[in-house]
TrEMBL record:
InterPro entries: Tscrpt_reg_PadR_C, Tscrpt_reg_PadR_N, WH-like_DNA-bd_sf, WH_DNA-bd_sf. Signal peptide: none annotated. This is PadR family transcriptional regulator. It comes from Micromonospora globispora. Residues 92-179 form the Transcription regulator PadR C-terminal domain. Residues 7-79 form the Transcription regulator PadR N-terminal domain. It comes from the Bacteria.
Amino acid sequence: MSLEHAILVSLLERPASGYELARRFDRSIGRFWTATHQQIYRVLKRMEADAWITAEEVGQDGLPDKKVWSATPTGRAALVTWLRAPVQPEAVRHELAVKIRGAAFDDADGRAALVAEVERYRADHEATLAGYLTGERRDFPDPDALDAQGALQHVVLRGGIAYERMVLAWLDDVLATLRNLDPPNRKATP
C-alpha cells in the first residue's frame, strides 16, 4: 500500500485541504496508516502532477485562500485498480518480541529493566485502545444506522480495537512470564 492510496480513499470519502487531510490522518486514518504532514503535502503534489487529484482554491474570511483537494476520475481508476489487486500477507517485525526472547540471555537485572519497558509499551497500547474506544463512541453512536462507507470505516476501527486488546492480553502474559522467572525468593542459577 502506498500513501497515495490512503489519500485517495480519504479524498473520496470527503474532499479536504492538505491541513484537513493531515488532521484526518492524525485522527482516524492513522489507525492503520501513518504519515507526517510533510509526507502528505509532498505526495499531494505528486498526485496532482499524475492527475490523480485536483485542487480548488477556496477563499477564507481573514485567512489566505486554501486548496481543497478532490480525487479525479483518473485517481479513482488508480484506486480501483489497486483495490482489485491481491494483498500479500504483511511481514511482521517486532523489536520488543526479539528483546523478550533475548531476555533468556540476560540476568535478573536485565529482565527487570525489560519488565519496565514492557509496562511502558503496554501503557502506550492501553492509551491507543482508549482513544479508539472514545472515537468509536463519538463517530459510530448507532452502528445499525450506518451506510456502506460508515460500516466499512467502523469495521476497520473494530479491527484496531481487537488488535489492541490482543496486544494488551499478550503483554499481560509477557509480564506474568517475566515476573515468574525472577520472583524475589528464587535463587539465581550460577
